[in-house]
Amino acid sequence: MSGITFKRSAELAGIVGPYAGFAQNAKAHARVMRKHASASSSAKSETTLDRDVWAEANKAWDSCLSTGDKNGWRNAQISVLAPTGTIGLMMDCDTTGIEPDFSLVKFKKLVGGGSMQIVNQTVPAALRKLGYTEETIEAIVEFISANGHVIDAPGLKLEHYDVFDCALGARSIAPMGHVRMMAACQPFLSGAISKTVNLPADATVEEVEEVYYEGWKLGLKALAVYRDNCKVGQPLSDGKAAKSDAPVALATHPATPLRKRLPKSRPSTTTSFSVGGAEGYMTSGAYADGALGEVFLKLGKQGSTLAGVMDAFSIAVSIGLQYGVPLETFVEKFTNLRFEPSGMTDDADIRMAQSMMDYIFRRLALDYLPFETRSAMALYTSSERARALETGEYTEDVVEDYENLEITAPVAPVPAPSKPVAVTIDSKQQFGSSTELMEALSGVKADAPLCMTCGVKMRMSGACYVCEGCGNTSGCS
């Protein structure tokens, strides 16, 4: 068929000319035609009928080459092997082309629901060809209908098992068998072969890789693999779902978060603080491993709006901690929030706070987060910052065990406290208000904008503003 089709293509080229671009591919196209002709002439004939067919095919290819060398070819490609699986089933064909039967007994899913059992109709003909009696054929067919395979079928000889091998099932054709069958047909087709290489459900990635590599070595132009049960809606299957003896698992409800409550008696710390003149108390409770589990805040007078809001906020944070929300997440969200009251605090580790929330979560971070976590947030104690000025790097505070500490050297005398350095202000400079005085002391304009990144008040730099906390600018580089 390919030889006659290419011959007709060469005749058409003599009338209307070859295809576009043939001049650039004339030598390559002629070489491909000679390879097709060589494959046809080297094919082995098993019967007299086969020899007659191959003789006609060789004549067609000889005529194709002679006409093509003169006129060229109108078509670059003329034949492929199309997928005809579903069409074959509708034509009552168990299989078409070189595709092996999917299974001796198949169950096809219908679009409207349900399934249809399909039994291979060529099994009786094959058994008759092999010389079995009608009684034996009937028994073997009944066995196949009930079991879906031929293993241990009554009266079937072991040497005939291979005849009934299918794509899948107890006796299936090896994946390389599919590949080699395609390679045997490829020289007689100008295009690719639409045939599936069936793999079992437990096929590995390495086995799939081996199939593609072997197909490349054998000269296939295309190769498709199908792993059994890899699709939810697989059209064909080799049988109903196998019944399992294992107990059916009860339907489970969607997973819900678990709350880890604190023990009845737990360690806690109460901290009094003052931010911008506003005083408050914070009580934090911890688990046995030292992780924070609850926070209670006391601000304002009992019954006031502020006290009620802080009580509700404390409950929300505590429940979040007990349901697994990391403390560092709260710290990242609530630090650098800016609103009143803000300003100086009475905490040696946190001298300035931009709001109550800013102070509270900075304090919790210093008390409960490990050094590595809070150092990534640039949260350090006063002693850690002082040590960094001396050594050039931040290191964690070391708490010594005073009970087991052995004194091996005399205690150094306590140095005399250094005299405080007074801040001097030019007496000639006149300040019209306390705002101007604060601007002179801090070096920051009172009306300077807040940093959009960290919330710190920015300092004027030329015509723009720069944040001394994170380095962000208001537009100037």
Automatic annotation (TrEMBL):
Function: Catalyzes the reduction of ribonucleotides to deoxyribonucleotides. May function to provide a pool of deoxyribonucleotide precursors for DNA repair during oxygen limitation and/or for immediate growth after restoration of oxygen.
UniProt protein name: Vitamin B12-dependent ribonucleotide reductase
UniProt entry tagged with the keyword Nucleotide-binding: yes
Family: Belongs to the ribonucleoside diphosphate reductase class-2 family.
Catalyzed chemical reaction(s): a 2'-deoxyribonucleoside 5'-diphosphate + [thioredoxin]-disulfide + H2O = a ribonucleoside 5'-diphosphate + [thioredoxin]-dithiol
Required co-factors: adenosylcob(III)alamin
SUPFAM superfamilies in the cross-refs: PFL-like glycyl radical enzymes (SSF51998)
Keyword tags: Cobalamin, Cobalt, DNA synthesis, Nucleotide-binding, Oxidoreductase
Species, as recorded: freshwater metagenome
Protein EC: 1.17.4.1
All copies of domain TSCPD, residue ranges: 264-367
Residues of the Ribonucleotide reductase large subunit C-terminal domain: 1-226
